[in-house]
Write a structure and sequence with these properties.
about 65% helix; 3 strands; 3-stranded antiparallel beta sheet; about 270 residues; 2 domains
Length: about 270
């Protein structure tokens, strides 16, 4: 049991470390993005504003905005951050001990790990596309405003800053999902009655789903039938956005005795 708790803690710590690194790099990319966007948006807003958004100019502006985001390093961040996240989460999950409460995991196929990278990367790049489109829509709307260019730019960049929180939540959620997906791939060949312990932090940040299920031992079919109220299939998505918990395969008889009963493992007996 101590081994499982240690694994859960290390998985959560790895996710937190990746999150902080992404947040720091994202802040730098956004600073570079604002510098890159300044001249583009000024050209769109200054002078004859109506003329600036006619015909192909509107679409050209949208492409310019997306290119500026790429030049600022956003696409590179999506690539490197996702690759590192999958690699480090897989390494942490697969650093498996053979001891009480832990079962041997099978190394997932490299192609399936690559698929995780591609899915995560595509999700982050889509946010970049959506951000450029949102800036473009806002800019073409502001073109017909009587407000000063500086005031409009302030509003645009404030809106970009507000989107950062959503992007960070997406990355954090994906990182934790990578860990659960690796565990799912590595335990795919285990029997249908294989139990999994829901392990991770027990603190005030836990959402209701996690408070209810942390420390419980369930079979995969029971887990997949749960509803976290946010994302489908809790075996992969856990408690939803920003969840820090993991479903880890167990073998100890002590934990098998409480599978699918709703009871908690002894170490979680005091959870309210």
């Amino acid at each position: 049991m101590a081994d499982l708790l240690g694994r859960g803690r290390r998985i959560a710590e790895t996710a937190d470390r990746l999150s902080h690194a992404f947040q720091r790099e994202l802040a730098r990319v956004l600073q570079d993005t604002e510098r890159a966007l300044q001249p583009i948006l000024r050209r769109a807003l200054d002078g004859d504003r109506t003329e600036q958004v006619r015909g192909a100019r509107g679409l050209a502006l949208r492409r310019e905005l997306r290119d500026a985001l790429a030049r600022a390093g956003y696409d590179r961040l999506a690539d490197t951050a996702t690759s590192q996240a999958v690699a480090q989460m897989a390494e942490t999950v697969l650093a498996t001990r053979i001891g009480q409460g832990a079962v041997r995991l099978v190394q997932p196929d490299a192609r399936k790990l690559f698929a995780l990278i591609e899915i995560g990367r595509t999700n982050l790049l889509q946010v970049g596309d959506d951000t450029a489109a949102a800036i473009w829509r806002s800019t073409t709307s502001w073109v017909f405003s009587a407000r000063s260019t500086n005031d409009i730019l302030d509003d645009l960049f404030e809106a970009i800053d507000e989107d950062v929180g959503a992007l960070h939540t997406l990355f954090d959620t994906q990182v934790s999902m990578f860990g659960r997906q690796v565990e799912a791939l590595a335990t795919a060949d285990l029997p249908a009655d294989q139990p999994f312990l829901y392990v991770g932090p027990n603190d005030k940040r836990n959402r209701p789903f996690c408070r209810e299920h942390v420390g419980q031992v369930l079979t995969r079919d029971r887990i997949e039938a749960l509803d976290n109220g946010q994302l489908p299939n809790p075996f992969v998505t856990g408690g939803g956005y920003n969840c820090r918990h993991s479903w880890l395969a167990v073998e100890s008889q002590e934990l098998r005795d409480i599978v699918n009963t709703g009871a908690r493992a002894p170490e979680f007996a005091g959870v309210a």
